[in-house]
């Protein structure tokens, strides 16, 4: 995500990422060129799925006259709006149903500078809600772009707002005598990139015949625009902690006298921000491989995510099934609770059953739970 912050062998993935420059031309003024970032475009097809699913915007070309979002007529126009104007998924879908030619969403300047000191929690919550509205909608042929707020764009927005506030006759006179803004993209339609990526695996071998503990995380951040993704407290934190665990534990595996009675398997999943499909395919591949005893040997799996900071002094462990007393999972949680208290953190266990009717997975551990692996995030 913006404020929190691609696929395994059997998963075909396509995406489009390209730097774009929008050009705004007014009849009586020089043109103004500014960088803009396309909303996501991706589709994927699993090996066991015949229908390909596509999301985001599939069109990049823009050549439309600008309008404010509340203008009476926005069909075949470029709507210039603020991110905070998007209050819900329904409100954004309602805008798209009016068939604008394209949409330019202006991001607050503090998102560019990443200076949130004077930003209220209410505003941050509004931004999070706006991005949720922009995520996971079916593919559209309406080009959608983001750009950071500038003095020039603010002036353009004010002029477009003035135009939308005018009566019909006044608007006609305004169009004939004042500045109208034409938006266009200077680059060609980008080619869709096709990638086929695998999970990264490594292991530390314990004493011969030892069971396995799995440590897993995702490597990619995700946002409404890939170019604007921030993963410091999401993908980057889990990856950083995983690498540090591997570095620290490797010292114990060097000498036979300190070698643990467990194998430690590390798995870093690409593109798991998209419904943890990478984890699902990784598990299916292990399950189908008759020569692999990986899943049967996993006595405990730990999924790492959002460990970059703690605003409330708590460390959260999410489970779909509470670990029974005496199990390895229960012992680990007790040890984790003791270690957290030493570092002035409180461990809180959050138990939530999996809704099997819902195809969307909220946490990585939910994928493992279907394979009956003892797991938590």
From TrEMBL:
Descriptive protein name: VWFA domain-containing protein
Pfam families per the UniProt record, alphabetical: Nicastrin
InterPro entries listed in its UniProt record: Nicalin
One GO CC term on file: endoplasmic reticulum membrane
Signal peptide: 1-30
Keyword annotations of the record: Endoplasmic reticulum, Glycoprotein, Membrane, Signal, Transmembrane, Transmembrane helix
GO biological process: regulation of signal transduction
Subcellular location: Endoplasmic reticulum membrane
Keyword hit for Transmembrane: yes
Organism, scientific name: Oikopleura dioica (Tunicate)
Topology of the protein relative to the lipid bilayer: Single-pass membrane protein
Family: Belongs to the nicastrin family.
